[in-house]
Amino acid sequence: AVQLVESGGGSVQPGGSLKLSCVASQDIGRNYCMGWFRQAAGEEREGVAIMYTSFGTTTYADSVKGRFTIPRDNSENSIDLEMNTLVPEDTATYFCAAAVTFGGRCSMSSQAYTIWGRGTQVTVSL
């Protein structure tokens, strides 16, 4: 089975930047959704940024638009998340996830995803 491994988390001050990386143990393929979710302490897991591998189209949560970016040149077995202008509300465990897609669209709901990494912690504080 495909395994996902995240890296790049850490502690940063507000306004700072971090880059997360996710590597799959094998090629995901063209008909998959792959991207990032996050879960803050005491909160539900939420979609952050998801890419449809067939065309490289990306969907971002409203809370991170203009600040977070999935580079368009990611391969089918690797996906990054560039995070800029970080704020304390971004503090969470960030998970890489993937799932086969039907109909050519990617869900922002965690329930739609079947392959998960273990997560990497991002902490934004003074």
Structural summary, described in words:
- By secondary structure, this protein is an all-beta fold.
- The protein is 0% helix and 45% strand.
- The protein is built from no helices and eleven strands.
- It has strands spanning 4-7, 10-12, 18-24, 32-39, 46-52, 57-60, 68-69, 78-83, 92-100, 115-116, 120-124.
- The strands form two sheets. Strands 2, 4, 5, 6, 9, 10 and 11 form a seven-stranded mixed sheet that branches. The protein has a four-stranded antiparallel sheet with strand order 1-3-8-7, with no helix packed on it.
- Strand 7 (68-69) and strand 8 form a beta hairpin.
- The model has no long low-confidence stretch (mean pLDDT 93).
Compile the SSE list and pairings.
Elements: E1 4-7, E2 10-12, E3 18-24, E4 32-39, E5 46-52, E6 57-60, E7 68-69, E8 78-83, E9 92-100, E10 115-116, E11 120-124
